[in-house]
Amino acid sequence: MSGRDGSSAQVAAPDDGADHDTRFFGQPWALAHVFGVEMWERFSFYGMQGILLIYMYYSVAEGGLGIDKAVATGIVGAYGGTVYLSTILGAWIADRMLGSERVLFFSAIVIMCGHIALAVLPGVAGLGVGLVLVALGSGGLKANATSVVGTLYAPGDPRRDAGFSLFYLGINLGAFFGPLITGLLQSSIGFHWGFGAAAVGMALGLVQYSFGRKSLPASSRTVPNPLPHSRYLLVGIIGVVGLLAIAALVLTGVIRADNLAGVVIVITLVAAIAYFAVILGSRQLDATERSRVAGFIPLFIVNVGFWSLYQQQFTVLTIYSDERLDRTFGSWEMPVSWINSINPIFVIVFSGVFAAIWSRLGSRQPSAPMKFSIGAIIMGGAFLLFLPWANGAANSTPLWAITGILLVFTIAELFISPPGLSVSTKLAPARFHTQMIALYFLSVSLGTSIAGWLAQFYDPTNEVPYFTILGFIAIGLGVALLLCVKPVLALMRGVR
């Protein structure tokens, strides 16, 4: 028997602080606990997001809020961007005050409260309170769950990429079942029942994680760069002033529903530039660490482009599925949100295949820059695949066509997202471990916000320019990185 809970016959493992257990499909058993809470968090997150846009733009008579579609897509993009933007706050609290594992636990509680607010509070007030809580909680959970997974592996452990792919499988199990359950409840008995199901899912994840969190390695609770207690009051004051400033901007009309996506884009861009400047300018970094952070910049840019297209599953593709997709089977019409469960099916099927391929190839697998470039090119190609059905009539696009396009989405995703999570932990300086992962999620935040902003330019009567231009931009980004693989690898100093 091997593992952290093994008997006296356990073979001594290297004393490197990592988990050498192999009981969870060849990975550390502790991975199962993070796998579980992330799975249920994604169930609640994608379950809620699957019905969020239509909840906003459906009429009041249909159970919605009657918000203009362009404004609603912008809100969805801004909300999604804020989720990833708040990873900065979660990462900072982990690195300076509580450690990743504790932030993960408390964030799960905040998420559950947000879904409860969406389920029980009526109208725009419930929407606002719920989305703010879910965004803050999800941001805290995402970066820190990834960081905790990273603590399970020693530097150079060949299982790392496969472990992250397995972790990604948990994400997509939740993402698959969430929209199915919430969509079925929404279409049969109402939106708030769907939001309630998301709250129940997060509660299940919280209970499961509560029982398993003690078995995680001590390094998951380490505070890498503790904040002096004398500065806690100052941090609290800054936080209160920040909240008051946001409230003032909202009350004076500077921040409005119709410009929310643009505001989040600007904030995220400024935050990313500032974050890179702070890390690169830190005197605590040696030359190798500084070079590796610089090597992450091209990956960051390509990742923004990828997520700008990929996250349109929750903006343009939701509208497309509601109005243009043939969802009828006899007399039964499939709920709109079920389209969001197609991509996770493919991820569930192919994440294991990709994990096996990367494990089999070992050191011969493509480098991270190569994977990113291939993923961006494939993502651009997926948008070009919309063109044969462009400008069609209502309900004219067959379900098999969208299914095929989402398969291409998935292949692109598996070239970028799990390797992106993994390479961010490999390139992270010791003192900026979780914050480097937050930088990765900042690229997702920026891309997600741009996805919501771009949706305003989508015209169902003239789709060709939209899909063509965005498709070729993504392909161009991928080709540019492909041509720069060698210099980027040189900056990464031995990390692939």
TrEMBL record:
Q: List where the protein spans the membrane.
A: 43-60, 72-94, 103-125, 131-154, 166-185, 191-211, 232-255, 261-281, 293-310, 338-358, 370-391, 397-416, 437-458, 464-485
Cellular location of this protein? Cell membrane; Membrane
How is this protein positioned relative to the membrane? Multi-pass membrane protein
InterPro entries per the UniProt record, alphabetical: Dipep/tripep_permease, MFS_dom, MFS_trans_sf, MFS_Transporters, POT_fam, PTR2_symporter_CS
List each copy of the Major facilitator superfamily (MFS) profile domain by range.
1-488
Q: Name one Pfam family in it.
A: PTR2
Main localization category: membrane
Keywords on record: Cell membrane, Membrane, Transmembrane, Transmembrane helix, Transport
Q: What does the similarity note say?
A: Belongs to the major facilitator superfamily. Proton-dependent oligopeptide transporter (POT/PTR) (TC 2.A.17) family.
What is the official name of this protein in its record?
Answer: Peptide MFS transporter
